């Protein structure tokens, strides 16, 4: 297996190399029930993971689960996909009863919630409503305590401000904030 950097670079910072190796081994163990996991994915801490559907995690994904656990959950028939080089911070809850797709190179803040279902009907609280897919594009930044509700798509390169509740689609390259989240700025100088 080819390593991402040269052996010399790893030997120059042995403590960092050791910590990354432990996080990689931790990911191999904790993500063993996933459908697929890409190379060099790392987990810090202890996840709460339930995969009754399909859970795909890309390469070089970093998941923090300390001091508060991160939850990854799929119900039967649910599909959760996390793209390459995405970072998920601690305390985040991501659940798929239908489909949740998170793009590559996303940054997800602490205590974020991403769900594709309300998990109960207003009239019949024991009934599970039909899921509405959630799609988060590539290079999206989500601040701390952001909530993404069912049926929402967030366009590539957008930024969601801390504490926002996203109730409707967000166009690419926008900054949204508030409850409910509204566009506060359009990003014109995108890479």
Describe the structure.
This protein has helices at residues 7-12, 14-30, and strands spanning 36-37, 42-45, 48-51, 54-57, 62-65, 71-74, 79-82, 87-88, 93-96, 99-102, 107-108, 113-115, 134-136, 141-142, 147-148, 153-154, 159-160, 165-166, 174-177, 182-186. The chain starts with 6 loop residues before the first helix and ends in a 5-residue tail after the last strand. It has 191 residues and is mostly beta strands. It has one domain (7-186): UDP N-Acetylglucosamine Acyltransferase, domain 1. The mean pLDDT is 92. A hairpin with a 4-residue loop joins strand 19 (174-177) and strand 20 (182-186). The strands form 3 sheets. The chain has an 8-stranded mixed sheet.
Topology:
Elements: H1 7-12, H2 14-30, E1 36-37, E2 42-45, E3 48-51, E4 54-57, E5 62-65, E6 71-74, E7 79-82, E8 87-88, E9 93-96, E10 99-102, E11 107-108, E12 113-115, E13 134-136, E14 141-142, E15 147-148, E16 153-154, E17 159-160, E18 165-166, E19 174-177, E20 182-186
What structural keywords apply?
2 helices, 33% strand, UDP N-Acetylglucosamine Acyltransferase, domain 1, 20 strands, single chain, eight-stranded mixed β-sheet, 191 residues
Q: How many domains, as an integer?
A: 1
Largest sheet: 8 strands, mixed
By CATH, the architecture is named: 3 Solenoid
- Helices, by number, come to 2
CATH superfamily assignment? Hexapeptide repeat proteins
| CATH topological fold name | UDP N-Acetylglucosamine Acyltransferase, domain 1
Biggest β-sheet: strands ordered side by side in the sheet: 2-5-8-11-14-17-19-20
Mean pLDDT: 92
Oligomeric state, counting identical vs distinct chains: single chain
Task: Give the amount of beta strand, in percent.
Answer: 25-35%
CATH class category label: Mainly Beta
CA-atom Rg in angstroms? 17 Å
Q: What structural category do the secondary elements indicate? A: mainly beta
In percent, how helical is the residue content? 10-25%
Shape: globular
Distance between the termini: 32 Å
What is the number of E strands? Answer: 20
Order of helices and strands: HHEEEEEEEEEEEEEEEEEEEE
Spans where pLDDT lies below 50 across 5 or more residues: none
